[in-house]
Automatic annotation (TrEMBL):
Entry EC number(s): 2.4.99.28
Catalytic activity from the UniProt record: [GlcNAc-(1->4)-Mur2Ac(oyl-L-Ala-gamma-D-Glu-L-Lys-D-Ala-D-Ala)](n)-di-trans,octa-cis-undecaprenyl diphosphate + beta-D-GlcNAc-(1->4)-Mur2Ac(oyl-L-Ala-gamma-D-Glu-L-Lys-D-Ala-D-Ala)-di-trans,octa-cis-undecaprenyl diphosphate = [GlcNAc-(1->4)-Mur2Ac(oyl-L-Ala-gamma-D-Glu-L-Lys-D-Ala-D-Ala)](n+1)-di-trans,octa-cis-undecaprenyl diphosphate + di-trans,octa-cis-undecaprenyl diphosphate + H(+)
Organism whose genome encodes this protein: marine sediment metagenome
Keywords: Cell cycle, Cell division, Cell membrane, Cell shape, Cell wall biogenesis/degradation, Glycosyltransferase, Membrane, Peptidoglycan synthesis, Transferase, Transmembrane, Transmembrane helix
UniProt cross-references to Pfam families, sorted A to Z: FTSW_RODA_SPOVE (PF01098)
Lineage summary: unclassified sequences, metagenomes, ecological metagenomes
Record-given protein name: peptidoglycan glycosyltransferase
Length: 371
């Protein structure tokens, strides 16, 4: 057989561009009041998001037209760099704290989240590692599961300690889905899950703020001005939007009622301004991304492409589910951006780069001799 190049997946390409365009629009709509009050410039956040979007588009098209096999030889350097960057957030002169968490590295006027790079680094490492190993090795614990488990645990603990529980969960989700697709024995995965459950309960219970978030999730109206404030304001925003919304840029909750309205809770503003219809459109777009992402994984010309596509798709969808689940009170409150839509450069640039890799994988088609 030979590999034939074709055009990138049109469905996925259009979906990603629409999501990013919606994001730029909603970042401005949700942030112009805050920008004016804090910085004296209503366009403060819009201008930055446009800069991020331009950079993201550059890396997006670069990834589309760069053979995904090219990244294989950079697997270990990217992995080592990502772990080093995760460690550097704890250096006072480099790490930047905000909202009680130390998740950013600040260099001059530029800051970024190393955890975004770490998610891609783990996907790339696991795709390369599982592809390189023989089937017999993958099914053994020592040669198959243990090496990626060690890497995942190191990343998990570094990110969890920032603290960033939601990104730690995404790291965990990527690890399990890629091992499953890669051919790891189900009994080994099951044993690992059983072991992880009590550890997860311990992690949730040992920090006071996590216990408070769990209790506020169960009954946010018990403490409406403190631990339950975020979710109550989010539900008010979603509920006041009704079916068709109150109109673009007409949100009331963005007037400093709903915290993080341009980042973690931007989906609530979408629901308020564009209504139930607007939120359904966003969910449909992510559903299309899920469909096309795993379709690309199934149709990939090799195992490396299959694992890379599955890992990238899982990362984006896990993050979307957690974000939407938080703002709709389906899961306890935790801070995480909505991919392609929330304000922020690190998340947008990395997600667009990963989407570009997905599209590049879709360009490689297996063609049988004589076909």
């Amino acid at each position: 057989m030979i590999i034939e190049k074709k055009s990138p997946d049109l469905w996925l390409f259009i979906t990603v561009i629409i999501l990013m365009a919606i994001g730029v629009c909603m970042v401005f709509s949700s942030s112009y009041i805050m920008g004016y009050k804090w910085y004296g410039d209503s366009y403060y956040f819009l201008k930055r998001q446009l800069i991020y979007a331009i950079i993201a588009l550059v890396v997006f098209f670069f990834a589309i037209y760069t053979d995904y096999h090219y990244y294989k030889k950079f697997t270990m350097p990217i992995l080592i760099l990502s772990i080093a960057l995760l460690s550097m957030v704890y250096i006072p002169s480099l790490g930047r704290a905000a909202g009680g968490a130390r998740r950013w590295i600040k260099v001059g006027f530029f800051s970024f989240q190393p955890s975004e790079i770490a998610k891609f680094a783990l996907i790339l490492y696991m795709a390369e590692s599982l592809t390189r190993k023989q089937v017999e090795d993958i099914k053994t614990f020592i040669r198959g599961m243990l090496p990626p488990l060690i890497i995942m645990v190191v990343m998990f603990l570094l990110i969890l300690n920032e603290p960033d529980f939601s990104t730690s969960l995404i790291i965990l989700g990527i690890f399990f889905i890629m091992l499953f697709i890669g051919g790891t024995r189900v009994i080994q995965l099951f044993a690992l899950i059983v072991t992880a459950i009590p550890l997860g309960i311990l992690i949730l219970s040992r920090e006071e703020y996590r216990r408070a978030r769990l209790l506020s999730f169960l009954d946010p109206w018990k403490d409406p001005l403190d631990s339950g404030f975020h979710i109550i304001q989010s539900l008010l925003a979603l509920g006041s939007g009704g079916i068709f919304g109150i109109g673009l840029a007409e949100s009331k909750q963005k007037y400093f009622y709903l915290p993080n309205q341009h980042t973690d809770f931007i989906f609530s503003i979408i629901g308020e301004e564009l209504g139930f219809i607007g939120t359904v459109v966003i969910i449909i777009l992510f559903t299309i991304l899920l469909w096309r992402g795993f379709r690309i994984a199934l149709d990939s010309s090799d195992q490396f492409g299959t694992l890379l596509a599955a890992g990238i798709t899982s990362m984006i969808i896990f993050q979307s589910i957690i974000n939407i689940g938080v703002v709709t009170k389906m899961i306890p409150t935790t801070g995480i951006a909505l991919p392609f839509i929330s304000f922020g450069g690190s998340s947008l640039i990395v997600n667009m780069f990963c989407a570009g890799i997905l599209l590049n994988i879709s360009r490689h088609k297996v063609k049988e001799y004589g076909a």
